[in-house]
Specification:
five-stranded mixed beta sheet; elongated; Alpha/beta knot; Ribosomal Protein L25, Chain P; alpha/beta; single chain; 251 residues; seven-stranded parallel beta sheet
Length: 251
C-alpha cells in the first residue's frame, strides 16, 4: 500500500484533503481512483489506512478507515551527534540514519570541521534535512520521523544532559571495540544512547579528553580506515544490533 505523510493537525473531520506534490503524485503518476486505499503516517507514531473519496483539481480527498500505532520503531532511542560533513554527505546520512531507525540527529562543529556555514545556511540545511527524513519514512515504513536538532558546538554537545544510559564517541585512535567497552550487554537495559561521530579529519586529543571528562566512553569501529559517513552508518548498525531490533536477542 502506498504511504504518504500528513501532518497530525490536518487529521480532523470525516474528510481530509491531501494537497501539493503528494496529491499530484497520486493523480498523475499513480493514477489512483476513488475507492483506492492508501496508508498515511503523521511522523508522531500513528499510521492510518485511508480511502480516496474524490479527486479535485487541487487535492485528493480521503477518509480515514483505521488508525493504529506504528510497530516499526526500535526499543532503543539512538541519538546521533554528527560533525558537519562536506558537500551533500549530510543529506545522504539523514536518509540512511532515518532508515536505520535513529531517533534524533544533532549536527555539530568540531575543531577539524571543514564546513562552517552561517546561521542562515544552517537553517536552510536543517529544513532540507527535515524534508529528507520525511521522504525516507515513506520508503522504510517507520512511524516516527527522525528529529533534526540545531547545529551546536562540540563543547556544547558534550555538556548536554539527555539522561542517556550510554554516551559513546567512536574514535579512530581507539583500539577497543564496543563489545570490550560495554561489558555484560545482556545484563543492562540501554534505552537511550548518544553516539558521537567526528568530521573527515577526526577528533583531536583535546576533544576526546573533554568528552571523557563529561562521562563519554570511546570505542573503535575496527582496524580499517573508514570514510566519515561510512563510520556513522556502521556505528548505528552496530548499536541497533546490540541494543535495538537488528539482530542480537537479549537473554
Amino acid at each position: 500500500m502506498r504511504r504518504f505523510f500528513i501532518e497530525q493537525s490536518k487529521i480532523a473531520g470525516p474528510t481530509i484533503a491531501i494537497t501539493g506534490s503528494d496529491a499530484a503524485h497520486i493523480k498523475r503518476v499513480l493514477r489512483m481512483k476513488p475507492g483506492a486505499m492508501i496508508e498515511l503516517f503523521d511522523g508522531m507514531g500513528f499510521e492510518y489506512e485511508a480511502r480516496i473519496e474524490n479527486l479535485t483539481a487541487e487535492s485528493v480527498e480521503i477518509s480515514i478507515a483505521r488508525r493504529f500505532l506504528s510497530a516499526s520503531e526500535s526499543p532503543v532511542q539512538i541519538i546521533v551527534a554528527q560533525a558537519l560533513l562536506k558537500d551533500k554527505k549530510m543529506d545522504t546520512l539523514v536518509r540512511q540514519l532515518t532508515e536505520i531507525g535513529i531517533t534524533r540527529l544533532i549536527p555539530f562543529t568540531a575543531m577539524r570541521s571543514v564546513p562552517r556555514p552561517d546561521n542562515k545556511r544552517l537553517a536552510e540545511r536543517r529544513k532540507r534535512w527535515e524534508r529528507i527524513a520525511i521522504e525516507a519514512l515513506k520508503q522504510c515504513g517507520r512511524g516516527h520521523v527522525t528529529e533534526i536538532g540545531e547545529t551546536v558546538t562540540f563543547n556544547d554537545l558534550i555538556k548536554m544532559d539527555d539522561e542517556c544510559d550510554l554516551k559513546i564517541v567512536f574514535w579512530e585512535n581507539e583500539s577497543k571495540p564496543i563489545s570490550d567497552v560495554i561489558q555484560h550487554i545482556n545484563d543492562r537495559h540501554y534505552r537511550k544512547i548518544l553516539a558521537v561521530l567526528g568530521p573527515e579529519g577526526g577528533f583531536t586529543e583535546k576533544e576526546i579528553e573533554a568528552a571523557t571528562a563529561c562521562g563519554f566512553v570511546t570505542a573503535s569501529l575496527g582496524p580499517r580506515t573508514l570514510r566519515a559517513e561510512t563510520a556513522t552508518i556502521s556505528a548505528c548498525a552496530i548499536l541497533q544490533y546490540l541494543f535495538g531490533d537488528m539482530g542480537l536477542k537479549k537473554s
